[in-house]
Amino acid sequence: MTDLMKNMDRLFEPKTVAVVGASANPDKLGFHVMKSLVRGGFAGRIIPVNPSGAEIMGLPTAASLADHRGEIDLVIVVVPAGGVREVFAECAGRDVAGIVLITAGFKEIDDPAGAELHEELLAALAGKPIAVIGPNTYGFVNLIADLNASFTPEFSSLKKGSLAIVTQSGGISHLLGFLAQEAGLGVSKIVGLGNRLNVDFPEMIAYLMEDHHTKVIVCYLEGMENPRKLVETARRYRGKKPILVYKAGKAKIGNRASLSHTGTLAGRTELYRGAFRQAGMLEIDDLATLLDTARALSVCPLPAGPGVAILSGQAGCGMVAADVCEAEGLNVISFSKATQERINELMPPIAYRNNPVDMGPAWYDAARMQMIVQAAMEDEQVDMIILLMMFASANVAVLAGIQDLLRDWRQRKPLISCLLAPPGIWEKEINYLQGQGALVNYPTPERAVRAAANLWRLRALNLKA
Amino acid sequence: MTDLMKNMDRLFEPKTVAVVGASANPDKLGFHVMKSLVRGGFAGRIIPVNPSGAEIMGLPTAASLADHRGEIDLVIVVVPAGGVREVFAECAGRDVAGIVLITAGFKEIDDPAGAELHEELLAALAGKPIAVIGPNTYGFVNLIADLNASFTPEFSSLKKGSLAIVTQSGGISHLLGFLAQEAGLGVSKIVGLGNRLNVDFPEMIAYLMEDHHTKVIVCYLEGMENPRKLVETARRYRGKKPILVYKAGKAKIGNRASLSHTGTLAGRTELYRGAFRQAGMLEIDDLATLLDTARALSVCPLPAGPGVAILSGQAGCGMVAADVCEAEGLNVISFSKATQERINELMPPIAYRNNPVDMGPAWYDAARMQMIVQAAMEDEQVDMIILLMMFASANVAVLAGIQDLLRDWRQRKPLISCLLAPPGIWEKEINYLQGQGALVNYPTPERAVRAAANLWRLRALNLKA
Q: Kind and range of the H or E element at A119?
């Protein structure tokens, strides 16, 4: 493990955190950072640093970083750009492991002075392996450690879980965090890399691959100076944990904005696309699908192949799903003779009994419905089940009736569903089944199928390796 | 107006409704239909018809349709297929305006007897212009009239509004209904056409074009015997009300399932695509986008052109939106010199001040932010505004600060937003602004841009006409 990696351990799990630029004034970011730490329930020591020396949120304040003589693991910096170099030099002179540099005004600005300042900061570290998140970032959150080192206190209300989110944009971090919260998806860490002084995607991926609390990694990337290093790092860990990546800056105008935003041209899409593939990273081009896929990964095993059985409570939804399966490269298989015979026995000729199966006529008979699902599950060509059912009053009891079977099959073949009902109906059953790892549910057949297709793509990517 | 159209008026706004096959047994669809009518608050007369003659839900029951001598506008039929012809003959012998035929087992089954029965039903109407919804349908709901003529009582809890949903699949009707409910989108009518005995898409579109309660029409279509009639009808009303259409059965396998589902081959995609375009109907290939677009239409005016200003609280979200704008055919315009100067004065050089504008540095100053939005609004090249902002604690007051301006500009240029925050934050402001018709909000930048692009497509489709 490199010295920088060791320091990243202390950065993400510090005992003592100093906030240079801490403030009691709600109009200052230094106020929100203090609120994040205090309200977030951080159990370690918090040291506000402010020349006034007055107490902030009931905590004694150091007039300067140098004034505090005890050990400090993490320094969060929210002072104007001009004062940052001095703080860095002070950090380099003592045993600080990490810095979160929220301050903006470095490489991303038009003025060449910004790029100079960036170099000066690196120089101020004097070769010390201090891990720096930023500059130009909201910070990071380690939900597992109750450490909210960001200017957004509300991040602390996210559900704890195993998804790590790493982005080059504060806005996208907030977007993905709030969407995860809405979807009930648990998060381990959210990290805003900003302009990446010395902690970039490769360093974060290496760290998260060793992080026991993280099982799935989601990256939002605009552009990098050295994509090759990212590929090499991801390849080294290939197959260990899934990496999903969204690459922004595909459009000409977005690319132009990227240079200003994080100091890097977004670069050619095809080049990145090939690099991600080589590295076993799954590229996803829609933010909702990105999180939908992360959610599937947090619940389901990977499928052994692209073979899909579509079991639908209503024929129309099955048709829509079949259309999207075909477009997304999944295979709506023909059942084996034995499977088809089992299903035929359970359903009247009035129903479409081939794949996609229209289970509508079995609504009133959960036992029959369960046997249909089981027959499909047991077909060797079926690698995944897509289960679709719209509540319709007469089928209210179906879900409770088949939940034991679904639970028994959990973690064997992915079961991706679109079960939709008015508020309050089926919520208990769906939450139970999701909690058991028996299924993952989406609000439309299309979103369910896209998530299923991405599970298979991820598997295929790493089969080829 | 044809006699069928006059009868459709009485079908959708009846004074008296009879339910043939009404039941007190919750295992029967006839129970759920009764519950829909009674719980849905229908103010007219309800006549349960059941040979037992026992009261159902406190209502006196007729032993047969013939036994009830008074006027009947609408007959809902939930008896087995074999008993339907007799009911139709009775309806034809008296002044019934419409029938909802929930019973399945006609043209959609493999057995040729099904197709024969279909023809027999037509014959049983004896040339009378009785409007029939179905067979093989859940029914319909007219929310404005508190009339739930379906087997899903929960449809009555949907919000009243101006969106009509017409589908060839009960499942998709339920899906779109529940998604509309979740999105707070008001609905006028939901109609399940099923196998379309004599009320098909052309008849429904002609009816809804004259329906004062309906402003936007959404269709889910699998396949039709006579697409030409649909095109002719839609063209006749071209430009009067927007029609959005989702066409299922694009995949080979979906097409095969369609024949079984509603007795019609889904047919060639390209043929339908051309027909929709000719008719000024906007085809949308994703169910979520279909409703997202309907929601935009329920709030915003149509844009005069494809010119977009992206105003973003965080640079990353602006980049994502710019990428999607380019992919969707919107034009992220270059501001006029005057607009750009106004924006430059309001923002520090640290920000990206071109389109997409990174308004981040103005978070603490809602007045400045408001002036930026106004400058963009007033630029003649800007046909639409895409406003993106992720809550970040420090920007909590921004939305309240600019809401007067947004309200003042309502209905002048579409303002499509992605404003996202943890639960409880900004909800009041967003609901207020949506209620005022000042903006329409989506959970991701992509969904916002796709809805915006569809507003422009709809305008362009009808400009060419």
A: helix A112-124
Q: How far is CA B245 from the centre of its chain?
A: 9
Segment A360-405, tens digit of pLDDT: 888 878 899 999 999 999 999 999 999 999 999 889 999 999 999 9
Contact yes or no for B440/B416 (Cβ under 8 A): yes
CB of B32 closer than 8 Å to CB of B153: yes
**CA dist., res. B449 & res. B185, Å (int):** 19
Query: Which chain B residues have a beta carbon less than 8 Å from that of A443?
Result: 179, 182, 288
pLDDT of the residue at B115: 80
DSSP at B80: -
Residue A384's closest CA among A279, A457, A291? A457
Residue contact A316–B172, C-beta within 8 A:
yes
Q: Do residues B204 and B189 touch, judged by C-beta distance below 8 A?
A: no
Average pLDDT, chain B: 93
Q: Look at residues B435, B426, B369 and name the one whose alpha carbon lies nearest to residue B393.
A: B426
Phi, psi of A420 (to 5 degrees): -130, 135
∠A322-A326-A327 over CA atoms, to 5°?
Answer: 115
Strands, E assignment, B8-101 = 16-20, 45-49, 74-77, 98-101
- B238, HSE (Cβ side, Cα atoms, 13 Å): 20
DSSP B196: -
A253/chain B closest Cα distance in angstroms: 7
Token pair recorded at residue A313: 């409570």
- With CA atoms as reference, report the closest residue to A383 among A312, A333, A323: A333
3-class secondary-structure state, position A240: coil
Q: Which residue has the tokens 């997409």?
A: B356
**Tokens 């295929």 map to which residue?**
A460
Write out chain A residues lying below 8 Å of B138, CB-based.
392
For residue B423, cis peptide bond before it (omega within 30 degrees of 0) = no
Instruction: Compute the average pLDDT of residues A262-270.
Output: 61
Question: pLDDT, tens digit, for every residue of A7-31?
Answer: 999 999 999 999 999 999 999 999 9
CA B122/CA B268 separation, integer angstroms: 28
- Asked if A171 contacts B316 with a C-beta cutoff of 8 angstroms, the reply is yes
Calpha distance A8→A202 (Å, rounded): 13
**Mean pLDDT throughout A300-304?**
95
CA count, 13 A, side-chain hemisphere, B231: 14
Question: Could B350 and A288 be called an inter-chain contact, meaning their C-beta atoms sit closer than 8 Å?
Answer: no
Q: Mapping DSSP to helix (H, G, I), strand (E, B) and coil, where does residue B387 land?
A: strand
Nearest CA in chain A to B156: A422
ipTM, interface predicted TM-score of the complex: 0.94
- Beta strands of B152-229 (E only): which ranges? 160-167, 187-192, 216-221
Query: Nearest to residue B200, comparing CAs of B287, B247, B132?
Result: B132
Q: CB-based contacts of A196: which residues, under 8 Å, 6+ apart? A: A168, A224, A262
For residue B387, pLDDT beyond 90? yes
B172/A250 touch (CB, cutoff 8 Å), yes or no: no
Which of A111, A151, A317 minimises the CB distance to B349?
A111
Query: Rounded to whole angstroms, how far apart are CA atoms B98 and B118?
Result: 17
Mean pLDDT of A112-131: 88
More confident residue, B114 or B215: B215
Question: In the sheet that A74-77 helps form, which strands lie side by side, from edge to edge?
Answer: A45-49, A16-20, A74-77, A98-101, A131-133
- Indicate the DSSP class of residue B360: G
Residue B465 above 60 pLDDT?
no
CA distance B442 to A185: 19
